[in-house]
Amino acid sequence: MVKVKFLGHAAFYIEGSKKILIDPFLTGNPQAVAKPEDFKDVDLILVTHAHGDHIGDAGEIAKISGAKIVAMYDIANYIAEKFKGVETVGMNYGPTEVDGVFIVQVPAWHSSSDGKYSIGNASGFIVKLDGKTIYHAGDTYVFKDMELFSELYGPIDVALLPIGGHFTMGVKEAAKAVELLKPRTVVPMHYNTWPPISADPEEFKKLVGDKAKVVVLKPGEELEL
Ligand code: NI
Ligand code: MN
């Protein structure tokens, strides 16, 4: 069984035969329900892009857990320089395998920077763990190539999609993404953390209709796959 726990904003904890964090922004995250110290035994940390609300505590958690950080090559180098001794796996768009976990880094239409200077490119991740397929979109606008993700790696058991607008897709665009991705279940994320990304997950649910099962997780809640 694979559990997908929502940690607030875009942070998720995936637990199966491996323990995986994605975008662990905990410190300073108004929605956070966990602290970096809660993840001393995590195996992998996936970072979708360099913005602070995604890199978050990745470096610190890697230090206390010995977890490997998987990210775009340039972002991995940036983290390795900031957090000496942390093990990183720098990759680019494409498939790879890290510690027996199949990971595809896929494009995302978004920027990636330290807030000022560009670092690498933004991405999403498709993770196959214990026979389950999880897609974390990162921060992105909707794009037609999302069709390829289900075509090449599907069926997608759960898609984690931003719905907050302003920096990413809003509810309308995310509902279109569901049409392209054809996931079994979709979990909205990256909304209501701050006023500019206010969104109503019930409106998203209505727009998705019967195209997928929408599970609205509160920070701290989890989904079993
Ligand atoms: Ni971002
Ligand atoms: Mn973001």
Describe this entry's structure for a reader.
The protein is an alpha/beta fold and 225 residues long. It has a single domain (3-220), classed as Metallo-beta-lactamase, Chain A (4-Layer Sandwich), CATH 3.60.15. Helices cover 22% and strands 29% of the residues. The protein has helices at residues 52-55, 58-65, 73-82, 146-153, 171-181, 201-208, and strands at residues 3-8, 11-15, 19-22, 44-46, 68-72, 88-91, 94-98, 101-107, 123-129, 132-136, 158-162, 185-189, 213-214, 222-224. A 7-stranded mixed β-sheet has the order 6-5-4-3-2-1-14, with helices on one face. The longest helix has 11 residues, at 171-181. The termini are close together. The model has no long low-confidence stretch (mean pLDDT 98). It binds nickel (II) ion and manganese (II) ion. Residues 10, 51, 53-54, 139, 167, 190 line the site of manganese (II) ion (MN). Pfam families: Lactamase_B_3. GO terms for molecular function: hydrolase activity. Keywords: Hydrolase. Belongs to the UPF0173 family.
- Helix- and strand-based class? alpha/beta
Backbone shape: globular
Q: Percent of residues in helical segments?
A: 10-25%
CATH architecture field: 4-Layer Sandwich
Rg: 16 Å
CATH class: Alpha Beta
Name of the CATH homologous superfamily: Ribonuclease Z/Hydroxyacylglutathione hydrolase-like
The secondary-structure element order is: EEEEHHEHEEEEEHEHEHEE
Low-confidence stretches: none
Strand order of the largest sheet: 6-5-4-3-2-1-14
Taken as a percent bin, the fraction of beta residues is: 25-35%
Terminal Cα span: 6 Å
Give the tally of β-strands. 14
CATH domain fold name: Metallo-beta-lactamase, Chain A
Residue-averaged pLDDT = 98
Distinct ligands, ions and cofactors found in the model: nickel (II) ion, manganese (II) ion
Number of discrete helical segments: 6
Please give the largest β-sheet.
7 strands, mixed
Can you tell me the number of structural domains?
A: 1
Pfam families: Lactamase_B_3 (PF13483)
Keywords: Hydrolase
Protein name: UPF0173 metal-dependent hydrolase PYRAB05000
GO molecular function: hydrolase activity
